[in-house]
Amino acid sequence: MEEKKAEGGKSSQARERGGASRQGGGLSQILSFAGGHRRFTYLGIVLSAVSMLLGFVPYVCIWLVVRDLVAVAPDWSAATSLSTYGWVAFVTAMVGILVYFGALMCTHIAAFRTASNMRKACAEHLMRVPLGYFDTHASGEIRRIIDGSVGLTETLLAHQLPDMGGTVAMVVGMLVMLFVFDWRMGLACLLAAVISVGCLMSMMSGDRMDYMNKYQAAMDRMNKAGTEYVRGIPVVKVFQQTVYSFKAFHDAIKDYGDMAHEYSVTLCRVPQSLNLTFVDGVVVLLVPAVLLIAPGVTDWAKFLTDYAFYAIFSAVISTALQRLMFVAAYTQQAGNAMSRISGVLAAPTLAEPAEPRHPADASIAFDDVSFSYEGAATPALDHVSLEVPSGSTVALVGPSGGGKTTAASLVPRFWDVGSGAVRVGGVDVRQIAQHELMDQVAFVFQNDRLFKGTILDNVRAARPGATREQALAALEAAQCSDIVAKMPHGVDEFIGTGGTYLSGGEVQRIALARAILKDSPIVVLDEATAFADPENEALIQRALARLAKGRTVLIVAHRLSTVRGADQIVVLDAGHVVERGTHDQLVAAGGLYARMWADYQTAVDWKIAGSRGGSSGAAPSARGTAAGADAAATGREA
């Protein structure tokens, strides 16, 4: 089963990447989430452009100051307009800052609303996908896609888009300013800008653009492998392994390092060196321009003033090009992030029936059901037919990978069947409204999880409108009285991070209380006692008996002792129903179930016998050794 799920997960991830690449992640797609707040984005871009144009005024004032000083030299006192130019420069600079602040306020408002709408859209879409989707997509992976990718788009909208507007205005204003005073000096400055832009484009286009995508993918693999490594540190310590035991993590770091080195050193060293040389050395290019122009100069005062302006203004070129580079980089990252979000939004959803039907009772029927996980070589279920009469208990048993959990998951539409039909109360589950189907079925899994909150809140999650007394009654029915009694705050005790941690068996009993409180007519149990110690198992068995009373129960079990009293036992192997009957009938038949029961009994009887003389050493008895071998063989067959 786990292998099939893994195969399905890999194929789902491949499908997600394919869907993302088809949909793309353009700026228009990001802005589509802004709704009515899109106008704030446009307003912020315009204000940022105005702020940038205001930033050119101080440079003009500097030129005017130099012009007046040169014109009256050496009688500096005759330059009476200097203070006026200074105040104009100061006021426009302050106004530019305030306008830019207003631009950021507008874009942040739009960015926050866009991010909120993205998260809501993802959450609403995920509410409609099959629950089986979350078996093949880890919660951490989905959280990283939504939170991380939305964060990148938020940065783009809040900061990079207004900077993009300002940068465009800066480039336009810069081109105008370069040719206002002396087109020859302006042309020399522009030459440096053209060379720099060419270098930047060579680093961020063509094959290098594809390389950037590979670089980003390598970074994602390294981050994912790093998370797995940190989670596996306890295993490393227990078995005295080194970091190289995590080959995937080591290889991911090496791949990332190789890519970063090849991109920065091999591919970008020459163009980046040229870029920095020319963009930071614009003033050097002015020298040959000045030497060529100087012989024909008649107004040396104006000539020197113009040269001073271009020497100072050349610093703007470097700033403008750097901002262009950062904007392009962030736009690409936001596009990749939007592609990931598009992958989540492209996940297939369960179709709601146009005319919902209502089940007549709590019976379950599998009518020639076949189902395959996407990408799997063989079907998980192959033409399976079985019935669970209303109010009865039916157990699904068989070797691992036989299709037991898959069959149980089709009842609440964790997945939809490939062919055939699963019926509840005589109605195909695909013709029952989702909320009604969920009300019909309660689940208890072997790895049930509790929320970070109080015990009471965790139980009420099944029925939020339940009273405190009803929740307490469910806890008592689930044999949780001892858990509540030892908590300082009783049912109001906070569990999880920052609170109390419970054992696996205690978690399972509270999950059972949740199922009891839900009071659904159908109960699906997937190895509910798998991780319980003997004491907790006994309590869980009592709680299960209380939960199953008067309800239709479908049990998936590996511990055959838990299903001896079932009304019917169905044996699944390789996706087929190979046997069915009561425990006694199946044992007498001498088939697969009988062999499984014999192996189970042998494993139960296995024991460690102490050596003679009461020494502290211990060794398996002959019977224990044989039983252990049989159990191991059974495990290998499973």
Explain the overall architecture:
The chain is built from 24 helices and 14 strands. The chain starts with a helix and ends with a helix. Mean pLDDT is 76; it is low at 1-25 and 611-638. The protein has 638 residues and is α/β, with parallel strands linked by helices. α4 (57-72) packs antiparallel against α14 and α8 packs antiparallel against α12 (269-279). It has helices at 2-23, 27-31, 38-54, 57-72, 82-126, 133-136, 139-178, 183-203, 207-231, 233-238, 247-267, 269-279, 282-293, 300-345, 404-410, 434-440, 455-460, 468-477, 481-486, 504-518, 534-548, 583-589, 592-605, 622-637, and strands at 364-371, 381-388, 393-397, 419-424, 427-428, 441-445, 453-454, 494-495, 522-526, 552-556, 568-573, 576-581, 608-610, 618-620. The strands form four sheets. A six-stranded mixed sheet has the order 6-9-10-3-11-12, sandwiched between helices. A four-stranded antiparallel sheet has the order 2-1-4-5, covered by helices on one side.
Short note summarizing the structure:
The chain is α/β, with parallel strands linked by helices and 638 residues long. It has helices at residues 2-23, 27-31, 38-54, 57-72, 82-126, 133-136, 139-178, 183-203, 207-231, 233-238, 247-267, 269-279, 282-293, 300-345, 404-410, 434-440, 455-460, 468-477, 481-486, 504-518, 534-548, 583-589, 592-605, 622-637; strands at residues 364-371, 381-388, 393-397, 419-424, 427-428, 441-445, 453-454, 494-495, 522-526, 552-556, 568-573, 576-581, 608-610, 618-620. Strand 9, helix 21 (534-548) and strand 10 (552-556) form a beta-alpha-beta unit.
